[in-house]
Amino acid sequence: MLPEFQTILSRFQRSVGASVFMTNSASVPEKLTVIVTGASAGIGRLICQRLARKQHRLVLAARSADKLAELQSELEASGCECISVPTDVADPNGLEALVKATVDRFGRIDVLVNNAGIECFSEFDQLPLDQILQTIETNLTGAIVLTRQVVPIMRKQGFGRIINMASAAGKHGPAFGAVYGATKAGLIAFTQGLRGELLPAGITATAICPGFATGGAVYDDIINATGKGTPTLMGGTTAENVAAAVEKAIRTGQPEMILNFPALRPVFLFRDVFPRLGEKLILAFTFRFFRRAASAKK
Ligand SMILES: NC(=O)c1ccc[n+]([C@@H]2O[C@H](COP(=O)([O-])OP(=O)(O)OC[C@H]3O[C@@H](n4cnc5c(N)ncnc54)[C@H](OP(=O)(O)O)[C@@H]3O)[C@@H](O)[C@H]2O)c1
Fold this sequence. Notes:
53% helix, binds NADP nicotinamide-adenine-dinucleotide phosphate, Rossmann fold, 10 helices, two-stranded parallel ribbon
């Protein structure tokens, strides 16, 4: 770095408070203890398989005990140390038990992947109240409550990674997916707030925002239900790409990753600068697809 630039930067840091610029200074342990919620299927399962190859210690959480046990056997056979803890993320007592089981077995928690989630594409006023509440509790409240229990442990360690599985739907609420989009937008804001507060403690938070992901995740059900994929210009990603992004986020601790091809960040930037035109553009490419997804689920 040029010496003049360094001087200007350190003056700026002093004037606004150095802690704002602090990133994680603790070194990343080689073998991480990782909790993955929603581990029994789809993206969560792929995340576990990928992290197991790096010999990290895994804690598999989801409601389906049988699927977790099956995954545990598979991962243990490959030499990975892991436990499965059947958990409903919408139940705060269950989350406490998940954290206790992790600390009892491994003594620390390095990474929390808040991946469990459900979607609910429907006409907004046709969505039953219990489904609205369940979506919020699973996708947002569960992640917040679990993170609240994990952060004090990470603070003591001086190191932690919180990875929140948001969605491109959190960057622009989809038609017929307003509630789902709201939970994912909530996760993105939650991530940003956590970073602001926890970076000086050596804890990072990352929001992962995939577009529709093919290859073994919930999007496959939507394709089967509608009989069609996403429009070409809306594109998507793969479940494998999303799992790879989680591994990268653990390494880098970066703030946000939007995973889609074609790239969506320029689209959201355009929408921010030209809100009405941007909204028209987004609706032109997505409205019919989301309406089809909503009516296919009736
Ligand atoms: N697939 C996509 O295109 C896409 C795009 C953007 C974002 N995402 C997000 O990525 C995450 C994973 O999605 P996916 O496609 O892999 O979905 P999936 O195949 O349906 O898997 C969802 C996982 O969440 C678990 N889960 C659901 N409710 C739960 C609860 N109350 N408590 C604990 N676990 C619960 C499920 O396990 P049990 O049923 O056994 O509990 C399952 O393991 C979600 O947060 C989703 O919103 C997905």
